[in-house]
Amino acid sequence: MADMPTAIVTGASMGFGRAVARALAARGWALVLDARRPAPLHAVAAELAGVGEVVAVPGDVADPAHRAELAAAAHRLGDLRLLVNNVSVLGPSPQPALEHYPLDELAHVYEVNVFAPLALVQLVLPQLRESGGTVLNVSSDAAVEPYEGWGGYGSAKAALDQLTAVLGAEQPALRVYSFDPGDMRTEMHQQAFPGEDISDRPEPAAVVPALLRLLDDRPASARYRASDLAAAVGT
């Protein structure tokens, strides 16, 4: 068993997931990291190996066998206190109106953005109950705002928000959060705006302090926006 708390972070090879992994490693967390692309995931694991214990498990969260590997790795490390469901897929780019949205692609968006996070939660709930831990599902303002072209991704995130809210009601011993990071300078955000300059968006690392505030303060299970938590940090 590990002497340090363990976290699972999905989508940890780049963007916000990588920034979260770096911050948790700096705080002494043992990490189980997931991403679809092995090379960048192993690069992050190698970078953080000098800081603490890191297990890289490349694969697709939509694959039940891969999710089982993640849960098993967390069990081996012991003391699982945090699951960060960060992996998302955008869907078609440019994003189509719902009138023309390919239903097979919409099914894949829901498989990755809704069903896979819940399935992973189901696998690790016994470990999280033992530690009184935290589930953090990364959401989006598209879950609550009716942006044209965002019907697929946004409705999936809205579904994830509702699953998160119900899970929080059903698991009072845990903290269960939807975390809306706001716009960030990430690969997926660039996919949403092909050909546009998104350099004015903040780097993912700039959003991490708001997430850490949530983990440190452990308020009631609910939906939280990074902008509100950041404002609280500054007061």
Topology:
Blueprint: E1 6-9, H1 15-26, E2 30-35, H2 38-49, E3 54-58, H3 64-77, E4 80-85, H4 103-131, E5 134-138, H5 151-170, E6 175-180, H6 187-192, H7 208-217, E7 222-225, H8 226-234
Parallel strand pairs: 1-2, 1-4, 2-3, 4-5, 5-6, 6-7
Helix pairs in contact: 3-4, 4-5, 7-8
Which descriptors apply to this entry?
single chain; 235 residues; alpha/beta; Rossmann fold; 7-stranded parallel β-sheet; 8 helices; 7 strands; 15% strand; globular
Structure description:
The chain is α/β, with parallel strands linked by helices. It has one domain: 3-Layer(aba) Sandwich (Rossmann fold). The protein contains eight helices and seven strands; from the N terminus they run E-H-E-H-E-H-E-H-E-H-E-H-H-E-H. It has helices spanning 15-26, 38-49, 64-77, 103-131, 151-170, 187-192, 208-217, 226-234; strands at residues 6-9, 30-35, 54-58, 80-85, 134-138, 175-180, 222-225. A seven-stranded parallel β-sheet has the order 3-2-1-4-5-6-7, sandwiched between helices. Helix 1 links the parallel strand 1 (6-9) and strand 2 (30-35). Helix 3 runs parallel beside helix 4 (103-131), helix 4 (103-131) runs parallel beside helix 5 (151-170) and helix 7 (208-217) packs across helix 8. It is globular. The model has no long low-confidence stretch (mean pLDDT 91).
